[in-house]
Structure formats: structure tokens, C-alpha cells
């Protein structure tokens, strides 16, 4: 099939109601029977899950599973920023005059990613990561830093796929999809954690209760099916780990880089 045909199918399936219907089934008890096949298809290590696979009430319950304690240790050096998720790096680099350049061939403005927030000015020449979570990955999102939640915003939008095809062939999906944006204040500066919804993601949920102050590695939110987190660092705040590059895979709690004033 041609690329235009796939794009048309994606456009038609990007309506929120499609993901809502899919999500309703994934939350139903009837979906339990699909958990073993789902885990086998995507190579998910069920032995890492907090509970036995038979104890999950639905496919969604399994998908948003916690892991056994100790499987994602948090980097011990407090001067280091840690990955909020298990993911592949699909974008990394300096923000230049408010522009993120060439994420799978497309450019994004910080202004559109942050829904024209007044805080946009803080990130004009900062640093960014785009972290893609596949269905295989652990889907809970943790805080990359210790700090206070300054502000949060839920941005309604589409649910285009954020995989290779979606990022490359659909128009600026990271800034058109549904997003939960959390601004966190560290003593060094401010970090924006942008959680981007995707095809078949019925919702992005904050943990409850959501604390005002977060510790590095503390749970912040979770995806219902695969998606992407965009991390934005304020100007003159952050230096990445030198070996990280496009295609690198990281685990939650792994070192991403250091604060510049330490």
C-alpha cells in the first residue's frame, strides 16, 4: 500500500472517540484473555511485573503495571538528571531560538509544544529529549528531578501514532496530539515534562494523590498504551551524557546528564 493510503487511514483513526472505544475494551474484564498473547507478541518480561499475570484485571491493568521493587534503581548521584521512562531516544539536542530541529525530518517550536504557555521564554535556548515508549516498555512516568510542581496543563488534541511512521509522515504530531504538561522547579532551574498521547492511548493519567513536591524517580503519571515523553530543560541548565544519541535506549532511573551549576 502507498504512503498516502496509510496517512489517510491514520487521519481517519486519529479521532479521540476511536481511542476511547479501544480504551474501554482494554479496561474491560473481557480483555484479560489477551494479556498472555500481548506479552508474548511484544516480548514483555512478565516476571518483572509487580503481580502475577493472572492477577491483572484487564489488559489496561497489565499495561500500566508497576515493576518489582529494585528493578529500576535511581542513579545515586543527586547532580544527575534521570530518565523518567523506559524508552528509545528519538530526538536529542539543543533548542535553538525556540526551535527543536529535525525530529524525524520535522521541526517543532517550543511555543506550540507548550501550548503557548508564558513559560515558553525559559526554554528558548535550552535542551531537549524526545523519548518514545513502545508497547514493550514499562509505561509509568517518573520525575527526572527533585523539585516542586509549579504548574500543570492538560492540552486536548488528536491521537496520531508517535512511532516512526507517525513522527516522519504525519504533520507535527508531538504538538498536535493530546498532552499533559508538567513544569517542575529544581533549585538549578525549570524542567518541562511533556507527556504526549498517541493512537489507542485512551488517556494519560497523573498518579493520585499527586504530590506538590517530587523526588527524583518518584511516580508522576502513566500512559494507557504506548506514547512519548518530551523533556525540555531551561536555558544554561543541563549538559547531556556524552554517549547518548538518536536510537539509544534508556531505562527509568538511568543517568541522562548533569546540572551545569554542580
TrEMBL record:
The keyword Heme does not apply. Its cofactor is pyruvate. Pathway: Lipid metabolism; Phospholipid metabolism; phosphatidylethanolamine biosynthesis. GO terms for biological process: phosphatidylethanolamine biosynthetic process. It comes from the Bacteria. It holds the Pfam family PS_Dcarbxylase. It is an enzyme of class 4 (lyase). InterPro entries: PS_Dcarbxylase, PSD-B. The keyword Transcription does not apply. One of its GO terms (molecular function) is phosphatidylserine decarboxylase activity. Keywords: Decarboxylase, Lipid biosynthesis, Lipid metabolism, Lyase, Phospholipid biosynthesis, Phospholipid metabolism, Pyruvate, Zymogen. Its EC number is 4.1.1.65. This is phosphatidylserine decarboxylase. It comes from Paenibacillus silvestris. The gene is psd.
